[in-house]
Hints:
The protein is an alpha/beta fold. It folds into two domains: about 1-110 and about 265-368, Isopropylmalate Dehydrogenase (3-Layer(aba) Sandwich); about 125-260, Isopropylmalate Dehydrogenase (3-Layer(aba) Sandwich), CATH 3.40.718.10. Helix content is about 40%, strand content about 20%. The strands form three sheets. Strands 2-1-3-12-11-4-5-10-8-9 form a ten-stranded mixed sheet, with helices on both faces. The structure holds 3-isopropylmalic acid and magnesium ion. 3-isopropylmalic acid binds near residues 92, 96 and 252. Magnesium ion binds near residues 252 and 256.
Amino acid sequence: MSKTFKIAALAGDGIGPEVMREAIKVLRAVEKKFALSFQITEAPVGWAGIDAAGKALPDATLALCQQSDAILFGSVGLPDRDPTIPKEQRPERAALLRIRKEFGLFANLRPVQLPKALAHSCPLRPERQGDGIDILVVRELTGGMYFGQPKKTEEIPGGHRAIDTMVYTTPEIERIAHVAFKAARLRRKKLCSIDKANVLENGVLWRDVVTRIGKDYADVTLEHMFVDNGAMQLMLRPTQFDVMLCENMFGDILSDEAAALAGSLGMLPSASLGTTSGERTFGFFEPAGGTAPDIAGKNLANPIAQILSTALMLRYSFGLNDAAAAIETAVAKAIAQGLRTGDIYTPADPTAKKVGTREMGDAIAAAV
Ligand code: IPM
Ligand code: MG
């Protein structure tokens, strides 16, 4: 056995634990096939962390993350329980955003692909789907309105005043632009940078910096688009996009929109990466969908986003390209076999077979 890779597995809330179970099953299959060694340690986060240790990100969980090579994350947040604690302590801010900031995970990659076999789950008419939808959303993850200061709600006569601040600096835009251009080079060499330069100071700076960085990547075609138009173009002609580069908030919104094109949010994995030091790129890998409390614990959730997130982990943090590809091929195989969780099932497809979370995980693990 070669190197042991240390993975912190934080399943979180809602459907998190059941999709994480399937992802670990698949990782164990990969371990056997490729003679690798994964040291997977599970720890509570989110409401599970609050229940276990009084905090959304318990100290022991944070320490585990610091000692690991990568974090495999499920999802956090149970809106029903939100009113019971102050907003700063809720899992979204106290765990998810805190981890992003703590580990400097500024680059969020969300690959959206509509497999041919799932064409019917796409809400667009077939003629709008062209030869297939294949978009990489590159989202800046540690800046913008999510983190800008001041951020507060104050009392004023007649009510309150809520303030969020959108801030970006040149270096923050430069580093995410490099990530996006490099990713485009490995794909169809087209980059569409999203901004709101017609209204926002941030948008003007964003456009200037991306344009300047683009001069280093003459082989990549750069286009700029206002975010409102970008949202519309995704619906009208999604096949025009290869890589979409977005600031934090715009990327949050457009990546959900793009995911819907791929059939289901349950299919969308994501990788959040920091700076590479030496050979090591610390990363955080999570499905882009949420905790889906309505279907939690019922063996209904689609585990594919979580499983594809492990593939991204193998590729980006561990450099295990063959193992990553094996997972992606196994997912494609399960889909080709007609296996469908409820979110991607349609009775209109005669070859489709409705399965649960576990059965989908079993089939993918077996295909590996
Ligand atoms: C996402 C999620 C998070 C975000 C929430 C849960 C804080 O929507 O990862 O896209 O807004 O970044
Ligand atoms: Mg989101």
